[in-house]
Fold:
Amino acid sequence: MPGALLALLAAAVLTVSGCSGTENSPGNAKATKSTHSVARSNAAGSCRPVVEQGALPEWARKGFLRGGPQRHMMGDKGEIAAVLFGYPYHAPAAKDRGNKILWVAKDAAGAADLRPDDRLTIKASLAGTNVVVTRSIAGGPGPSLVDMPKPGCWTFSLSWPGHSDSVDIEYLAG
Structure:
């Protein structure tokens, strides 16, 4: 019986060590799988950013010269992709890089119908607080710099003409 217990304990240790998270650490050269995710939640448990390093969905690849992996997040409803440049993000923004996000709407035909005065509106809520800020991106989904006033996990409620979605994004202390 002790041998079986030892084998079970060894299997448990191997399982836990395989989930250490080091593979998904920023800057780790081994994080080159075609797709992988990092999911975390804050103390309140209401914010769960999921960052993927892999191929963008087919509909979000237009304009990318290479088809390689991109760091991105998908909206909860699948209506938008956030391609993350300069990640991880900081609040206040880091001096050497911006909090750049390229928003790609799934309905590309609808995006082509956007007028210059249309906007992507972001109503951002800081998890575990009553802090809410609004950001507006001229022209609808596209390139943006999105700065938040405080570090933490932010839920972005996104809306643009005829569409809405949401995504959780973490900002580290600057």
Q: What stands out?
A: The chain has a mean pLDDT of 76.
